[in-house]
Fold this sequence. Notes:
The complex is a heterodimer of chains A (608) and B (416).
Chain A: H1 2-7, H2 15-58, E1 61-62, E2 67-68, H3 73-80, H4 84-113, H5 118-131, H6 134-145, H7 150-154, H8 177-199, H9 202-217, H10 222-251, H11 254-259, H12 267-275, H13 282-321, H14 329-359, H15 376-416, H16 422-436, H17 439-452, H18 458-483, H19 487-495, H20 500-511, H21 513-529, H22 532-538, H23 545-553, H24 558-586, H25 589-607
Chain B: E1 47-53, H1 57-74, E2 77-83, H2 86-98, E3 109-112, H3 115-122, E4 150-151, E5 154-155, E6 160-167, E7 169-173, H4 174-180, H5 188-197, H6 210-223, H7 237-254, H8 269-277, E8 283-286, H9 291-297, E9 305-308, E10 314-323, H10 330-340, H11 343-350, H12 368-372, E11 392-394, H13 399-412
Parallel strand pairs in B: 1-2, 1-3, 10-11
Antiparallel strand pairs in B: 3-10, 4-5, 6-10, 7-8, 7-9
Helix pairs in contact in B: 6-7
Amino acid sequence: MSNFNSQSKPQSKPQSKNRNRSFGQGHFNRITVWAKWLLLCLLIIPVVAGVVGVFLPAMGYFPAIGAEQFDFRVFAALFDVAGIHRMMWLSLFTGVVATVIAALFAFVLLSVFYRSQMLSRLQIVLSPFLVLPHAGAAIALVFLLSPSGFFARLFTFDSSAIASTNEGVFLFDSYGISIILALVLKEIPFILLMAISVMSQPLIQEKINGYFKAGTALGYSPIAIFFKLVLPVVFPQIRLPLLAVLVFAVSNVEIPLILGPNDPSTLAVAILHWFNHIDLSMRLQASSAAVVQVGIAVFAVIVMLAVEKGIIFYGKKWLQRGKRHAATDKAISATAYLLLVAYVVLVVSAVYTLVAFSFAKQWTFPNIIPADVTMLHWNTVFDAVLTPLSNTVLLGVSVSFSALVLVLLTLESEPLNAAKTRASLLLPTALFLPLLVPGVAFLYGLVWFQQLILKDAVWFHVYVAHMVYVIPYVYLSLAVAYRKFDNRYVMVALSLGKSPMEVFFFVKLPLLIGPILVAFALGLAISFSQYLPTLLTTGGAISTVTTEAVALAAGSSARLSAAYVVIQAVMPLCGFGLAWWLSNILFKPSTNTRSTNKSNTGKSVRSV
Amino acid sequence: MLVIAGSAYAEPSVDGNDIAIPGPGANPNTYANTSPKTSPKTDPNPVVRLHAWGGSAQVNSYLKWVADRVERKHGITLKHVKLADTSDAVSRVLAEKAAGNLNNGSVDLIWINGENFAAMKKNALLATGWVTDIANFALTNPSNNSAMVTDFGEPTLGMEAPWGKASMVFYYRKAHFDSFNEPVPQTLQALLQFSQQQPGRFTYPVVTDYLGISFIKYAAIALNSSNQSLFYSPVTQKSLEKITPSLWAYLDALHPTMWRNGEYMVRQASQLQRLIGNGELSLAFSFTAAEIPSAVERFDLPRDVRTFAMSDGSLANVHFIGLTFNSPNQAAAKTVVNFLLSPEAQAKKQRLQVWGDDTVLDTSVLSASQKSMFETQQSHPSALDKSQSTPLYAEPHASWTDALRQAWEERYGARY
């Protein structure tokens, strides 16, 4: 690249300006490398410290209670706990099944709508579930699916009926079906978003268009083209986000806590319980269970990779058979439309139920509308929500913005330092560290260390804990767009004498403004939804909307709980809405691409 | 099981570092700012963090009122850190002690009783002997009232000040019972018969929950009326074996008839109220009788809810406010506790519209004007009928809580 640059360097340029530029260039280069190391530190240090903080107790070392010998007795004791195998199985089963189903459904939806105008409408329908924190989604499902919930009310026609609670029991089922349902509903939109962002990259889009034309010419149906030609191109690009989804699914706390069984619960819920147990020696058991939870996550990833290998193996034979219509074309599009309808019904009913509950006076079963409305609940909420709300926004914006800056500079450091540096080899592993190590595991260890150093810097600790979770998502969401960026723009700009820094600021950033804003909004949403990290690192000193919402989910008022879920949904929606609106204002690819480029190149030419 | 953060009225970041920066008129506390140039030792605007269960709107808004009052009267900022489970705050103080944080803890005051207190006492996590410094503590008449200095059979040793009293009450949906054409159960046995007649209409929370284990204690005492004295001394293997057979026989019969066939039990007491509210349960119980009518007023419970006490006995206890050993604001915290024990605050707390928590003050030692503060009760159709008399069961010795819970978990499996 630098070769290219020097070749095209205009001879007439004054010497001093040249030196200036190369100085700035080295400076910029160094900043990107620093940013990369800072990002690595932010990802690795808290997680590693946290893991050490749980690994030591798991091995029997916990000086605070006089346990100072290393051995495996803690693990032995853990496996003696009644129901432990069932807990482990429940975590693994719900996580893997939910992820496989979610991925499958996401691909089914894509295969039917990827060439149609419906795709953008589909995204709008799915967006409420995308941005709603997991806790909020689980609470919403309880409102809809419980025996006294909205759907039961819809289908109860006897006005004096009493909610039946022992027949058709669905929530809290011992197989974890309700956990799977909540996870699937929550993960489909995420996987879809990831896939769409891959497919909308210029290079991939071109490729897909070509394949589509060739496939059509050869008589393949659009759905068959998707599964036979498009998916093999797209899948490798979304494998990482998919695995992140999987690890989250096997180890998350909120959903099984709100919807899951407790005879026994999933392992993550039990870990949370043991860590908070009043008897400090339970921390040993909690720590060993946390280590086991890490093992389950790793095992789930292996299972998933094996499933993928199997599909590739059989998929090749299936491809070679060359059938033009997948035999199941009709079933697939029927499934897709059913899913779409299901989402529409769920979203509409959830919005209605939650909003109505937040205004409801008396609203007894089986009425489908409240007897009357009141502002009482919202007044109560407004009285209390101001501080949590401003904490949430302040934290979200600062975390998401700094994560974005670090990620952009880190991504920029790759083309600048083409050779594989130590940092860039570490990066893929580091990114997955916070997503692979269950939060219930390392956060407790992290708090232990935070108590040792800088124990009063609460905002700093919560900032770090949020960064750990926000960076990977911002990175994953941006990396695809960034790496698939059509590099010819860069080459043209460089060949016209722009420095890498100028290329970064005036070519890449404007062209990538859409994905950048989406990544920022995603960072906001991730920060908004953090429950455990906020709670543990601040010890309750800093409340956010989500910590308040989970507190009220456990509280006695359905109406306040509903109001908080509404707030939880509206906040990230504002973020994404702002991102879409801004990216349309700042940069419209369809109409402005050419002119923006022209003006850029025009400037370059002029400066030459 | 979850710590719930939530200081609804907290300033974003508060620590001792911002010493000599007088806020630009943000805090209208006239008392504290009388001498702005005082030495940095006495914080002109101290912050007291009260860690207290935050699942009840009444308690939360009462504490908000308390915060307003102490701010105005004493220039103290009281932050209510809302917990879902008090043991979270206990483990936090424990962790601080383990990490060597001996004088700058994050918890000042903590609302506790029973085994949380026993655990804090055992690990020396509370300041001792401070309660006698509290002027209003004398109004509880501790010398004639041992319940004020005994917490579940454990002497408090001045580590915690009494705050309120509670006893277990049951509440039900009148419309449901009318349509079942069943009498409302008045005894533990009648409760079982009702649940067998109408499966799925009753449940109790898991035994890790305060109310869940309270139900087990109530059942154990009621089923062993001839052996009641066993419960008031530390548990032994022998005494446990004496009382469990009748308890297991009862629960074995009850569980399959409960909500969701007893397979899923709610994690928190507050969910019981929610299930009554949405009509999935017909009968539930609570330790705060006053929360029932006020929940009706806030529409969280339907109007046909009625409250009563079981005729075969009602578990009763006192709850306390503890001061942590590593609180950096002990003086301000004591001022807050003194306010909590003032007739003004206690009378406000006892009002049904506010919280309805019974006062710990002994009305016989109050002046006439103080007494008159407490005379504001109005009747509400959903409120507890106080004219009926019920024998009160004192809380068993604290060691019974763990013993009963463990025995229960061994028999029915730990549920989280």
